[in-house]
Amino acid sequence: MKKLLFLLVALVTFQGNAQTAQPATLYGAVAYDIPSKYIKNNIRVSVSVPMGYDPKANTKYPVLYVLDSFYSFPLMHEMHKMMAGEIEPAIIVGIGDDRMSLPEWIITRYPILSYDNVAYEDSFHVANLLRGAPVKLHSGDGALYYDAIKKEVIPFIEATYKTNGDRGLTGHSLSSLFASHVLFKDPGYFSKIGINSAPLFVNDDETMRLEKAFYDSKKSLTGKVFISASSLEGKNLFEKRALNLANALKSRNYPGLTVKHHIFQDESHVSEIGALTGKILYFFYGLPVDRSLGKGHKADK
């Protein structure tokens, strides 16, 4: 009898501890696959709406389009929720697929986020980021990808959600090099641009030539531009060039343009991603509120 009781208890305990793995999801986020005739593939789009969003209400929201959704959208989605009250509510749209391995992500993002075909960069990426894997990379499809974003992704978002026409675009690393091209090639379409740890050295510093040509064209820039780098990335490769771009834009004295430049100390090319997420959200959408914590607590005397 005692043996039978022991077996029953053991069975119940085992069943109580047995769990079935379930796919984890980002609470409050949804995703779509948008067919694109420009890149001849689907574009994965993830959407995060602000708390209290009501599709039947008249309230409309700005939209921040976040490139490299593979890693950036989950961070932006969660930080946007945590910063409610400190920032203006916005719709966050991640562009890019997260349903793949890291090498697959590197291979698929590289052609579409690069505007120029640069053979040296192609071979450098294979040798360093892919550890000499037997693949070939071909850069230069950025213009097609931008057409897909502007003519297919954004119209879908603006037809589906309550948007107010205020668009932002931010990226990191290669996707921020893409954003720097958008800044000068389609000025005004986005009122906010984030250029974070961009490899501005690509194609012999082409971004700086774009900036100079844009200024010489006598066109104007308005809105907000956030430019950042990290202290551990390499002073010449990233930090110096981020400063050069920021200083160039500031020196032009464009009416209505606000440029913020920031260096993340003791951060690497990848570890800065978490730090810049909150920083860029506040720069783009910050509210004039007291952001301190603990005032009034007896320990704060």
What layout of secondary structure does this protein have?
Blueprint: H1 2-17, E1 29-36, E2 41-48, E3 61-67, H2 69-82, E4 91-95, H3 102-113, H4 119-128, H5 142-160, E5 163-172, H6 174-185, E6 192-196, H7 202-216, E7 223-230, H8 235-251, E8 257-264, H9 272-285
Parallel strand pairs: 3-4, 3-5, 5-6, 6-7, 7-8
Antiparallel strand pairs: 1-2, 2-4
Helix pairs in contact: 2-9, 6-7, 7-8
Explained architecture:
- This protein is of the alpha/beta class.
- The chain has a domain at 36-99 and 163-285: Rossmann fold, CATH 3.40.50.
- It has nine helices and eight strands.
- The chain has helices at 2-17, 69-82, 102-113, 119-128, 142-160, 174-185, 202-216, 235-251, 272-285; strands at 29-36, 41-48, 61-67, 91-95, 163-172, 192-196, 223-230, 257-264.
- It has an eight-stranded mixed sheet, sandwiched between helices.
- Helix 8 (235-251) links the parallel strand 7 (223-230) and strand 8 (257-264).
- Helix 2 crosses helix 9, helix 6 runs parallel beside helix 7 (202-216) and helix 7 packs parallel to helix 8.
- The longest helix has 19 residues, at 142-160.
- It is globular and about 65 Å long.
- It starts with a helix and ends in a 16-residue tail after the last helix.
